[in-house]
Design a protein that fits this description.
The protein is largely without helices or strands. It has a domain at 35-60. The chain contains no helices and no strands. The chain is globular. InterPro entries: Galactose-bd-like_sf, Xaa-Pro_dipept_C.
């Protein structure tokens, strides 16, 4: 539904506050949303070494506004 590129720097933890472009979508009751994080996107420069990984800590969250 939406996406945003972000340059992750190697060598330690980072605090990231990423605002995604606004979008509206009706999610029927009982359905779920998913957040996908990836180390490669064919629309952007592929500068990741083979085997690149990301880790998301337990203190991570996503705020989703409801109307």
């Amino acid at each position: 539904m939406t996406h945003a590129p972000y340059t992750w720097l190697s060598g330690g933890r980072q605090v990231i506050d990423l605002a995604l472009p606004a979008t509206a979508w009706n999610v029927p009751a009982g359905h779920r949303l998913a957040l996908a994080l990836d180390t490669k996107d064919p629309l952007y420069l592929d500068a990741n070494p083979s085997g690149a990984a990301i880790a998301v800590s337990a203190s991570s969250w996503v705020d989703i506004p409801l109307r």
